[in-house]
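Moderator note: this is an archived Q&A kept for reference. The question asked for a predicted structure of one protein chain; the sequence and the answer are reproduced below.
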Amino acid sequence: MTFRNISLDPPKVLVLGFILIILIGTTLLTIRAATSDHKGLSFVNALFTATSATCVTGLVVVDTGTAFTIFGQVVILLLIQIGGLGFMTFATLFAFILGKRISLKERILLQESLNNISMEGIVRLARRILIFTAFFESIGALILSVRFSFDMPVGTAIYYGIFHSVSNFNNAGFDLMGEFRSLTGYVNDPFVVLTICTLIVTGGIGFIVINELYEYRQTKRFSLHTKIVLATTACLVAAGTLFIFLLEFSNGKTLGPLSFGGKFLAALFQSVTARTAGANTINIGDMTHSGLFLIIILMFIGASPGSAGGGIKTTTFTTLLGAVWSQIRGKEDVVLFRRRIGYDTIYKALTVTLSALILIIAITMMLTITEEGQDFLMILFESTSAFATVGLSMGLTPELSPAGKLLITFMMLAGRVGPLTVAFAITLRRKQDPFRYPKGKIIIG
């Protein structure tokens, strides 16, 4: 695949690339061989499923484990893998195989796709991404296959192990357990819970961070980006686990019937999966309103830049917290880990967050119209889950109207490529103003 003759901006190419993959997936999922009843999916349902898989979301309108044949499930798995890594990474893989040189334009597209700060070493990073992915998915598949072999035939266990490893490393959350159960049957199982939590966190911190962890023995240092990602991820997982544990402790429909250890495992899993993975070990719809609102907050923050996850990202969240803390203390500079954060970074964080809020508000408003009569919290939860490409649902997804499905489909795509990328893709080339207006003062607060 080559982009040498393409005159589009990188954001436009990325958006069009995702749309092309979604359309191919939609076509494959509409054929009779893809579904178990051989009737094929309707176009809207196929489009929704292909978008959910490519955007590694996990929201489903039909049950993946029962509605699709092995062919259909493999199509979904390939869409997850391509969408999780990014089509430019796959294009680079084919270039490696064919021995082709990566052009400058392709390197720029790779940089944009991987959300990397610099283009230096971008091809080497892409090569390592493929190696890291194969390593973590293989280890996850091996552990899960062994565990599943106690509950099902060995061949089925291996297939399930591979599917769930790929799905969760790419933060997709698709499962084959059937009847929309996700992983609720393994709520007390430390092997399944801890393995999948590890896959989700590893896939969610971003390949830039994984690469720095890999190189730490030689470099003996981390960049500011990696420090913020690791610290924020650890704090959010710990805080999410604690609050879910406390809020759902006595809920007879979620953590209540479980042992103390089971409560901890379930709270940990829900805290981790809310960071854009989508699998669940308890029935999300049965959680308390306070627990659901906490999940919405975690989903909105999401994973980290350069990963398969969505949301506004951990670095955006921490940058905004740093800016607020600096204002409260009367400090002019925002300082994190003894490094000053530039104003351009703060403006971008504000823009990403406000764009996300506006998008969620707009889609939620439209869903209240198309899904009139549905609970507002369910609609807000669904909208946030789609934007953050999480895939958790309170049960609304299968009941969506065709218009609602199309709205959520757009939301998943926008959440995967990012609000800014979508905005840049549909506007003209950005130009610097030839002059500056005089500075004005307004009262804030």
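Archived answer notes: The mean pLDDT is 86.
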